Amino acid sequence: MTIEEKIGQMNQLDPSWNAEEKEALIREGRVGSVFNIVGAKEVNRLQRMAVEETRLGIPLIAARDVIHGFNTIYPIPLAQGATWNPALVEQAARLTAREAYGAGIRWAFSPMVDVAHDPRWGRVAEGYGEDTYLASVMAAAVVRGYQNDQMVNGKMQKCLAACVKHFAGYSASEGGRDYNTTWIPETQLRDVYLPPFKAALDAGAMSVMCSFNDLNGLPSSANPHLNIDILRHEWGSDALLVSDWGSGSDLVPHGLVADKKEAALRCINARMEMDMQGNIYTDYLQQLLEEGKVKESQIDECVRSILRMKYRLGLFDHPYVPEDQPMVYSSRELAVVTRTAEESAVLLKNDGVLPLSVSKTLHDQTLHDQMVNILICGPLADQPKEQLGTWVFDGLPERSVTPLMAFSEWADSINDMSPLAPNRPPVTLLYEPGLTYSRDRNREGIARAVAAARKADIILYFCGEEAILSGEARCRADLDLPGSQCEMMDALAATGKPVVMIVMAGRPLTIGAQAEQAAAVLYALHGGTMAGTALCRLLTGRAVPSGKTTMTFPKMVGQIPLYYNRHNTGRPSYDPPMLIDSIPIGCPQFSIGQSSYWLETPTEPLYPFGYGLSYTTFEYGEPEMEQTQDTLFVSCAVTNTGRYDAYEVVQLYTRQLSGDLVRPLKELKGFEKVFIPAGETRTVRFDLNRGQLGYWHEQKRDCESRVWFATDPAEYEIWVAPDSRCTTHSVRFSIEK
Ligand code: BGC
């Protein structure tokens, strides 16, 4: 390859070029990847130029932000995490890959695995929440789903290359402000932020994306510690490393370098291999080579990575995608979309009003025959586009089923059955949105909604955030329901009718006051195309909630950052030591012995991590433990003590009680989502190996690996619990020296 051809491969075409310029660059072999070009015909047309008209015929790779679905949209990743069901998330990714492939896309810019502690950061919607272990499991599931061998056009192929992002530390930006500085000590980087990347790479992720932030003073596109020491040397990864959108040229505004030429030099020295949109390699790399500042071997290394990915995807053998396969989901596939939305909704409160069943057709349901007049209201009750959530370029809102649509269909089907239940009055649906969009401050509609509420037996209030309030650069300083939604809740509650709040949002919101007024709260996040169907099924008892939170819900913004696996402090001190979590902190002052303490910022969350109710109840037995040299086997019997067959997310937490360094209050080390029929018991068993208890330690080197992890000889406490409060029995065990 000539130098021009090599540098061409390192260029991901800036989508802003006009058609003529774009085609000329492709024909000259100066493009390695196209971005934001969609449609099998158009991708194939450009591909033909690369394959048939350039000297070497190297195929292009078409990339796109495929984040949570393609035309058919799944719940946002934060919601997918709340399913705690990696098999379902993997299936969703597999179907997404096929749909994207049908449009010519072979490279998805996801999964995003940035562990996030700050819900003000708009991009929490794109990740899997605050826990490293959960994010790692989900990251691997998405990679397997995208990169699974699938039958395409009669051949087994990997449809879609995954790109795990943003490497690294992006979510730790100061104050939750997007793109901002991050300061992350090595211990925290290794223990909290990096493991999901490693998990995705271990699952075979073909590429990694740099992040925008400066990490401890060094933007990641120019960070050899991340990109070379860790990614290449420690982890031995040969995945392609692509910049984020212009993150290479951003070194200039960061103030790291004086101009773009120097930016190109810093990036290649940090082995950023492909330049997305920034044009720094196309403009300066050859010059840097001629000046002897860059070696050709550095360029070769990058190009090899790019060609390797194309080869792995099978692009050299099959560069074109079939043009005659319009992808429309069958009902079987739509059932997966619906199920993902169902399992991602978290029931936060229920005083017994749910499920709203008016039918006896399902066995053993609570019968609310008096609830026949149902008011559907709120700014998100009928918003086909908004329920899709952030990062939806190709999603088709016309395929969305909104809550209003789903309830109308459900009411019709119930009423059609009325000859079978002659004494039951028909279900009547009232619809009055009250507010037209989430930030609406015009209160006139609220009066109409209240008038309708007076005629209703129950109010379903679909509130939250429209899609544009979360995602990239969509940070919020205030986490209340926007617009006049809180006032609308006050007005609805004042009618004395039961209000069920269904929150469709991109992040945890500070809904404490509204939740107190509500009879029930179902936290749905943005549920995608089939959100309406899923919510209707859950609310009417045809499905049972099984989602659990993946981020701690703060009571107020001042508590942030608030996450379950933080460290305990030295104060107040107790004998024996007590978790600060277990102190009742509702009010700012409390006493222990002679002393009284003030906590201006309570640490108690509104809802803890891992939390979610069901229509049934579960009882946890005492965990049992067996220990071998390297592994700990923990099992626990969980009984469904209620009346509904249901899924439960059984969680395993550990705490190291002493050690070389202070360790987190609790750490999630395993989970399993189990189906337990009413009245039955299932025993859940976890295997925990010694390595899983280790943590990053600068001074300790595990002789086996080149990585510095320590497992302290210490006493550990272990819980099998329904959420991170760990109010169930625990067992202790020790690791001897
Ligand atoms: C985002 C990435 C995204 C890229 C391409 C950037 O602004 O940070 O996550 O993949 O744009 O659209």
Give structural notes.
With about 725 residues, the chain is of the alpha/beta class. The chain folds into four domains: about 65-300, Alpha-Beta Barrel (TIM Barrel); about 330-540, 3-Layer(aba) Sandwich (Rossmann fold); about 570-600, no CATH class; about 620-735, Sandwich (Immunoglobulin-like), CATH 2.60.40. About 25% of the residues lie in helices and about 20% in strands. It is globular, with a radius of gyration of 27 Å. The model is unreliable at about 360-365, about 580-590 and about 705 (pLDDT under 50). The chain binds beta-D-glucopyranose. Beta-D-glucopyranose binds near residues 65 and 472.
- Going across the biggest sheet, name each strand in turn: 13-18-17-16-14-15
Number of domains: 4
The CATH C-level name of the largest domain is Alpha Beta
Termini separation comes to 57 Å
The CATH architecture classification of the largest domain is: Alpha-Beta Barrel
Question: How many DSSP E strands?
Answer: 30
Mean of all residue-level pLDDT scores: 92
Residue share in β-strands: 15-25%
Each distinct ligand: beta-D-glucopyranose
What structural category arises from helix and sheet content?
Answer: alpha/beta
Q: Which value, in Å, is the CA radius of gyration?
A: 27 Å
Q: What oligomeric state do these chains adopt?
A: single chain
Q: CATH-wise, what's the superfamily of the largest domain?
A: Glycoside hydrolase, family 3, N-terminal domain
Search tags:
737 residues, four-stranded antiparallel sheet, 27% helix, 19 helices, binds beta-D-glucopyranose, Rossmann fold, six-stranded mixed sheet, alpha/beta, TIM Barrel
